[in-house]
Specification:
- By secondary structure, the chain is mainly beta.
- The protein is 3% helix and 38% strand.
- It is built from 1 helix and 16 strands.
- It starts with 11 loop residues before the first helix and ends in a 5-residue tail after the last strand.
């Protein structure tokens, strides 16, 4: 296991400001393991165990595409976009008290590669991404139909590209903003989905 994600010894204060730059989805991992953190405040006795409860430093986004039989459509790709590129080392253990994080200028944003998938009528496909924290807030007094119209400028979203099977060659792009709900929440928090 890679137990030490930081260079050498650091104070708690140093760790609060330490982060890893994410340029690819794989940068959220150490080898094949997701980056996690744990903080334990305890008295240490010679023969006692120290118990750590690790938390994921990333949010999990699960997208299940169900294409109904007879829909007259097929899905050809999906892409996660505007992902924060700042992965805080203590992300799973810190709370920003409801403020937007990362705030404008605290992080760059990137698009994950487009995934070419084929979901024909009557079939389904599941896609999973792990992303750094991107808490862009909760909009008030909106419905799920209005969510896209009220999306904050730096909220993470995904696009789905689909086509029709009626021979017209029509291609459509759909845009969705994940969060704690599909109505008004734009927060992607560590150790959550």
């Amino acid at each position: 296991y890679e137990w030490n994600a930081v260079p050498g010894e650091m104070t708690y204060g140093d760790l609060l400001g330490y982060y890893r730059q994410v340029l690819l989805e794989s940068d959220s991992y150490f080898g094949d393991r997701l980056m996690m953190c744990a903080i334990c405040e305890t008295a240490v006795h010679a023969a006692s165990d120290i118990i750590f409860r690790f938390k994921r430093n990333v949010a999990k986004i699960e997208l299940t595409i169900n294409n109904a039989s007879g829909s007259g459509m097929y899905v050809q790709s999906v892409q996660l976009r505007q992902v924060a590129s700042r992965l805080d080392v203590l992300a799973g253990e810190t709370d920003h008290g409801g403020r937007v994080y990362p705030a404008y200028g605290e992080s760059d944003y990137l698009d994950y590669p487009e995934l070419g998938i084929t979901v024909s009528a009557g079939n389904s496909e599941k896609v999973v991404w792990y992303v750094p924290r991107n808490e862009q807030g909760i909009a008030s007094n909106i419905s799920s139909v209005e969510k896209n119209a009220y999306a904050p400028a730096w909220a993470t979203y995904f696009t789905i590209i689909s086509g029709t099977t009626d021979g017209t060659g029509e291609i459509k792009e759909y845009k969705f903003y994940p969060g704690a709900n599909m109505v008004n929440d734009f927060n992607l928090k560590p150790n959550s989905r």
